[in-house]
Design brief:
It is built from no helices and 10 strands. Strands 1, 4, 7, 8 and 10 form a 5-stranded antiparallel β-sheet that branches. A hairpin with a 2-residue loop joins strand 5 and strand 6. It is elongated, with a radius of gyration of 14 Å.
């Protein structure tokens, strides 16, 4: 079986709109599973430079799939161990939720494998 690694990653400034109102960080944090393939999320790593807890939200087709809280001035590493298959046509995105008015920077790295 052939597999190809895919990564959604980068350093992003943000301004919080509320922990219950996640928002996209940028278009480069979007991945469309191509026709004839499936994908699996393998890990998530994130760092938060803000003085408040934030939450990275893994979105699938516009709906929250997983939440990754990142503590104030903290980091997180979550091994997803191939939790579920993402079929062709699925859109995967990383969004961020933060308390209203919180300004900061996050570093995110989502590793996927396309099979």
């Amino acid at each position: 079986m052939h597999s190809t690694p895919r990564f959604l990653q980068g350093v992003f400034p943000f301004e919080g709109k509320g922990l219950d109102r996640p928002a996209p960080l940028g278009p480069e944090l979007s991945y469309l599973v191509p026709d004839g393939a499936s994908a699996q999320a393998v890990y998530f790593r994130g760092g938060n430079a803000a003085a408040e807890l934030v939450c990275a939200v893994l979105m699938r087709d516009g709906r929250p799939m997983r939440y990754f809280p990142i503590g104030a001035k903290g980091d997180v590493h979550v091994s997803l161990r191939v939790v579920e298959d993402l079929p062709a046509g699925s859109t995967i995105e990383l969004w961020l939720a933060a308390p209203v008015g919180t300004i900061g920077t996050v570093i995110v790295d989502l590793g996927l494998v396309e099979v």
